[in-house]
Design a protein that fits this description.
- It is a single chain.
- With about 170 residues, the chain is an alpha/beta fold.
- It has one domain: 3-Layer(aba) Sandwich (Rossmann fold), CATH 3.40.50.2000.
- Helix content is about 40%, strand content about 15%.
- The chain has six helices and six strands; from the N terminus they run αβαββαβαββαα.
- The longest helix is centred in the first third of the chain and has 19 residues.
- The chain starts with a helix and ends with a helix.
């Protein structure tokens, strides 16, 4: 299957996710926050300022649906993983490769079990396939998310990034 067809399918599945979770925003990235990320009140407040929608596992959180936060089961998310634009993960999740097989951009701690295959995306060269944060704190994660959001805004860069993930 061609990369273009896979990207087109991602868009269709993303619309299904939005419909099933009652997400009404337009042109925003949708990301999954893996259960291995500690979700604190401060972290939630910060994420609420981002121009993205976040789906959080109901298995690891007491978060209620509000604003740009939506709650779903991990099983439901995995069945529609291709529709997500990115996932934020501590690097210990067993589902990293599943998400990447669906063309979902990884935002991970730099020390993860796939670090030999993943490198920070370089938008100038259109190379590599991930975004990393260096320490397990909200500021480091925030910096990695901001880098991702900057690339998401530019369709050509984002398409290259997704293509690099599919062709891994």
């Amino acid at each position: 299957m061609s990369t273009q067809k896979l990207i087109s399918e991602k868009s269709s599945i993303k619309n299904e996710i939005k419909k099933s979770l009652s997400i009404t925003s337009k042109n925003r990235a949708i990301g999954w926050i893996c259960p291995d990320i500690e979700i604190t009140k401060d972290f939630l407040q910060w994420l609420s300022l981002c121009d993205a929608d976040f789906v959080v596992s109901k298995e690891n959180s007491e978060i209620q649906k509000s604003g740009n936060f939506f709650v779903s089961s991990e099983v439901d998310v995995l069945s529609q993983k291709e529709g997500f634009d990115f996932f934020l993960c501590g690097g210990k999740s067993k589902n990293i490769q599943d998400f990447m097989a669906g063309g979902v951009v990884p935002i991970l701690h730099k020390d993860n079990y796939l670090s030999a295959l993943l490198k920070d995306f370089n938008p100038i060269k259109g190379e590599w396939n991930a975004f990393f944060y260096s320490s397990q704190n909200k500021w480091s994660m925030y910096a990695a998310l901001v880098k991702y959001f900057e690339n998401y805004k530019f369709p050509y860069d984002n398409k290259n990034l997704v293509k690099n993930i599919f062709e891994m």
